[in-house]
């Protein structure tokens, strides 16, 4: 079973929790007059995004990057690519496009932020910085069995992270968010070090759903359930993002996932239309000639 998937999504209460009391305080510390917004999918390959690419498309990334302005780069979790590969990705994509690469599994899942992880991080970043201004934000995703007993490792990792490279973090063990003392210590650590606290909106993991921003970046990983409720959930997100925009958020990074990924471009396009309409953005609407709301399973 994929992370957070459920058999009957219609039985889930998807209501977004209220903002954490400190979220608006964080936004108002240094309110931005302009909000940058990036929306896109987790993958660009044709095998997953079935039906998205026109017949005869030769380069999937080149086409994808002219429809969306963001990609969650999961491939970097499985291997550390050489600098030349990042440079090729950079060259294929237009100005304004952003990559959000996941830190390699050796860092998060094998070494689990141990003291000897620094050389691996350095090697990873040596390559990733070749994305130059198209490097949106690196993100760290820990295994769901990585618990607060190893909080000292998190502190050392966060405090040692190079400040010039944006970072966001995601924890999946329930105690990071549902042990109040642990949660507040974690939030403060991230806030003090200008690290984004990733929000994961997934059907089967409402226990880790939080609305605590720790800097002026909203990094949202939205996992649809291939159900009609996916659209009403996005409508609620539009209202929350409108509220954050009114309070000076600087950047919104919204990643649309699906258990069956072929529908991710449809949901992303719907979200973009709503953001343009309700928040006054002018994002490109991806090519889609179908009635997206009638194509979900």
Structure report:
The chain has helices at residues 23-29, 60-64, 75-78, 83-92, 105-110, 118-128, 151-160, 175-178, 180-192, 229-246, 264-279, and strands at residues 36-41, 70-73, 98-101, 138-141, 167-170, 196-197, 199-201, 217-224, 251-258. The protein is of the alpha/beta class and 297 residues long. It has one domain (14-294): Alpha-Beta Barrel (TIM Barrel). The protein has a 6-stranded parallel sheet with strand order 3-2-1-9-8-7. α7 (151-160) links the parallel β4 and β5. The longest helix has 18 residues, at 229-246. The protein starts with 22 loop residues before the first helix and ends in an 18-residue tail after the last helix. Mean pLDDT is 94; it is low at 289-297.
Helical content stands at: 25-40%
Total helices: the number is 11
Roughly how many Å apart are the termini?
18 Å
CATH topology: TIM Barrel
The helix/strand series, from N terminus to C terminus, equals: HEHEHHEHHEHEHHEEEHEH
Protein name: DUF72 domain-containing protein
Organism: Winogradskyella pulchriflava
InterPro entries: DUF72, UPF0759_sf
């Amino acid at each position: 079973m994929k992370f957070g998937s459920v058999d009957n999504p219609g039985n889930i209460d998807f209501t977004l929790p209220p903002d954490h009391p400190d979220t608006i305080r964080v936004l108002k510390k240094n309110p931005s007059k302009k909000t940058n917004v990036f929306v896109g999918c987790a993958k660009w390959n044709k095998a997953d995004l079935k039906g998205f690419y026109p017949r005869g498309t030769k380069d999937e990334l080149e086409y994808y990057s002219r429809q969306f302005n963001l990609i969650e780069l999961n491939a970097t979790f499985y291997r550390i690519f050489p600098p030349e590969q990042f440079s090729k990705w950079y060259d294929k994509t237009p100005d304004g496009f952003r990559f959000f690469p996941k830190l390699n599994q050796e860092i998060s899942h094998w070494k689990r932020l141990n003291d000897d992880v620094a050389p691996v991080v350095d090697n990873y970043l040596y390559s990733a910085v070749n994305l130059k201004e198209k490097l949106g934000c690196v993100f760290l995703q820990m295994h769901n069995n990585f618990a607060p007993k190893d909080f000292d490792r998190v502190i050392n990792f966060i405090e040692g992270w190079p400040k010039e490279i944006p970072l966001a973090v995601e924890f999946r063990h329930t105690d990071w968010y549902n042990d109040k003392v642990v949660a507040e210590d974690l939030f403060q650590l991230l806030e003090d070090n200008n690290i984004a606290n990733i929000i994961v909106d997934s059907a089967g993991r409402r226990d880790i759903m939080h609305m605590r921003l720790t800097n002026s970046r909203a990094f949202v990983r939205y996992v649809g359930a291939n159900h009609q409720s996916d659209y009403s959930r996005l409508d609620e997100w539009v209202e929350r993002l409108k509220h954050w925009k009114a309070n000076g958020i600087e950047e919104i990074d919204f990643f649309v996932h699906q258990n069956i990924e072929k529908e991710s471009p449809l949901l992303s396009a719907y979200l973009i239309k709503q953001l343009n309409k309700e928040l006054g953005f002018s994002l490109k609407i991806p090519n889609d000639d179908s009635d997206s709301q009638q194509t979900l399973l």
